[in-house]
Design brief:
By secondary structure, the protein is an alpha+beta fold. It has 4 helices and 9 strands. The chain has a 9-stranded antiparallel β-sheet. It is elongated.
């Protein structure tokens, strides 16, 4: 064999070995669902500016502070988003929180509790390249993760937006939502 072929084959072998080592040590960055084993009975959402809301499970109904009933659809989405977080991958080791929106006034902290003990904490930063992906810090980890879904849209509501809307009765006694006025 000629020297040139030997060098070329050796270079291919070295590159294949480097690629194999990268796959072994880097690990696969698979999409995974991080699912809680326990169900939260209290979900507290706090904005960086000090405002926020708390949802408490009362039998089959979610209630806001003050005992007002929460909209079942919105509360169900919040509960599901806390229960299962779809993680698309690790973005950073957590040294640059400002870059991912954790220092902004729009940053959220979501704490889920069961019987008074915290079972999950999600710090939500800004939306990623698309609105359907969000940067998060999960539980006590400093790693910035990319999560699937518009978590700012799900959790970033006010108490008024979460409160269940009651249909006002009309003069005829019907509940205005299904009546037709001609």
């Amino acid at each position: 064999m000629k020297t040139r072929k030997i060098i070329l084959l050796s270079a291919i072998g070295v590159l294949a070995a480097v690629y194999a080592l990268q796959l072994i040590y880097q690990g696969k960055n698979n999409v995974r669902d991080d699912v809680l084993k326990r169900k939260a009975d209290t979900i507290q959402v706090a904005y960086k500016n000090g405002t926020g809301y708390t949802l408490r499970k009362d039998a089959d109904t979610w209630r806001l502070d003050g005992g007002r009933e929460a909209d079942s659809y919105a509360a169900g989405r919040i509960s599901d988003a806390v229960q299962t977080v779809k993680i698309l991958g690790k973005v950073s080791a957590g040294t640059d929180a400002q870059r991912f929106g954790f220092d902004d006034q729009t940053a959220l902290t979501v704490s889920a509790s069961e019987n008074g003990s915290v079972i999950r904490t999600i710090r939500i930063g800004k939306a990623a390249g698309t609105a359907m992906q969000t940067y998060i810090l999960l539980d006590d980890s400093r790693e910035v993760l990319l999560a699937s879904g518009d978590l700012n849209g799900i959790f970033g509501k006010t108490e008024e937006e979460l409160a269940a809307k009651k249909a006002e009765p009309t003069e005829s006694g019907e509940s205005g939502e299904n009546s037709v006025t001609r």
